[in-house]
Write a structure and sequence with these properties.
By secondary structure, the protein is an alpha+beta fold. It has four domains: 191 residues, Histidine kinase-like ATPase, C-terminal domain (Heat Shock Protein 90, 2-Layer Sandwich); 121 residues, Ribosomal Protein S5, domain 2; 111 residues, no CATH class; 151 residues, MutL, C-terminal domain, regulatory subdomain (Ribosomal Protein S8, Chain: A, domain 1, 2-Layer Sandwich). Strand 3 and strand 4 form a beta hairpin. The longest helix has 19 residues.
Length: 668
Amino acid sequence: MADIIHLLPDSVANQIAAGEVIQRPASLIKELVENSIDAGADRVQVIVTDAGKTCVQVIDNGKGMSETDARLSFERHATSKIRQADDLFSLKTMGFRGEALASIAAVAQVELRTRTAEEELGVSIQIEGSKVINQEVIACPVGANFSIKNLFFNIPARRKFLKSNHTELSNIIAEFERIALAHPELTFQLHTPDAVLLDLPSGNFRQRIVNIFGRNIDKHLIPLKVETPMVSIIGFVGSPESCKKKGARQFFFVNGRYMRHAYFAKAVQNAYERLIPEGDQVHFFLQMIVDPARIDVNIHPTKTEIKFEDEQAIWQILRAAVRESLGKFNAIPTIDFEAGDPLDLPVFPTGDFSEVQEPSICINQDFDPFVMRNSGSTSPFTSETLDNSFSSSQANRFAALSASTGAATSTSTTHSPKSSHRGWEEVFAASQEELSTNSFDKHGVGSSNEHSFQWETSPTDEHQPTLYSQLAQGEQPVWEIATQDFLQYQGRYLLSPTKEGLLIIDQHRAHMRILFDDYVNQIARHAHASQGLLFPQILEVAPNQLAIIQAIEAELTDIGFELSYLGNNSYSVLSAPADIEGIDPVVLLQSILEDAQQHDVAVHEEVVNSIALSMARKSALPIGQLLSMDEMRDLATKLFQSSQPSFAPDGRNIYQILPHRLITQKLD
């Protein structure tokens, strides 16, 4: 058998390594900017063209490289940061493996211009697909200037899977933000050929956070600082009022390196227990200083995951530090025992207690709370007391409640005298007799002298037999009689009997589906109903959202928004959709941007669906909203006329039918 094992060429090996290290244009930013920081630069400038697909240029004023080092730096595993295995346990640099430049050169067209301070001239090297095309001496400033063009030019399959421009640009900005937050003492600038996206002067950590995420976040930052022999933690956590359902700013840094750590994030979240709603997220920007020998940063190709030797102990320290900061800055609600008027407590004289009497208790042995005044029965309540207790205003409120809920049952509710010795047959017969003799007006108030109440009966159900009569006479069960009556349950579900079973509709999801279809149709017809704001509002967007709002601005106009760019990542909201009454337009726009940020909305249809979903989610009936009978019927009618009555726009079920057999099984 012939030998089948052979060594891969360096170019192929570098392309394989590039698949782990270089995933998208944002990976170029990470690797090249981290190299600039390791080179001692205090100013880094990044220029991206076509969201990094066409060109990514990184310019720094670091110490630069000699001609020999510049040529050798593109070889695999060539590095100046470690020399032996023990150096892996004392790393203080961002990079160390020597794979970044070799991987980049294998999948792109690279040009490097660099010069050291000791030399008068620099060197220019051009590489394509790991092959050196040209090398010459040039005049250039001290530092390094990397120009990466046509990423994945020799791997069309990889280039085809890149996302839309604004999605890739958002990833670039997110990666740039992480590096800039980790090093607030350095100056960073990110821009395209047309505009400056981020211009961050050197400063402290708080200034860097505000410069990136806007002035609004400053008032919600709570300082945190703790120093222990194991770990030192400094930074900021967000106030409970700043929590969000999604899109919270959460950053961990260890020795100047950004990392993801779900376990530590859980510690921060746990510190806010009972301070924020369950499922909400909080902002945090935390830097940890740990002995490099007690962590391992070499467990992930992109070095975004770190293994801690003292993970559980740091978890406890982190949680305690967050709780301490929340308490120190009054973020935790406290009880003020001095607030309000003090209690007037009687002071007993010392010595003689003869005047102190034991309180007496009077019990009415004849009082029965279950006895109501009824014809032919005795009751402790007289007509006068009942008239006084049930005032005209209360009667009006009860009538309004009956009308608003639109109760339309065929069963009236009355109270009969309580008797512990009567069998259910006698009670049932008495109830039937009372149902047939008592009459009620349309508000449920008895038209005779009796003060009894019942739900309003729908005109369509006046001649339908009651449940009691059907059970007594063995007639067709009530759930097989199709009606249009609804009952609202817990302010969230609409219940209605059908021939198949009990229909249960989620009112929030049903309204979301109806609104979603309406918004999609409005955008398609460009038939938006816009309403000008009396006082324009200011929308401040993060730099990574600026590209998104520019990409979807046409669709926002179709839906009814009118925006005017003010510069400095701010927009003036001049008009808003006419049918979002009660919703803050700025909050709605921020929700739309956060939703679009999490999805690739390159195709027009996806842009429309993303905006319509955000609008529908914000404008839909909230859970707990009481509906009248007419409103419930109208909601159900429009739902079953919609494009997808079974599912909400986010894919969740809108309604379910509880079969009769399940109900009867429970009752049996």
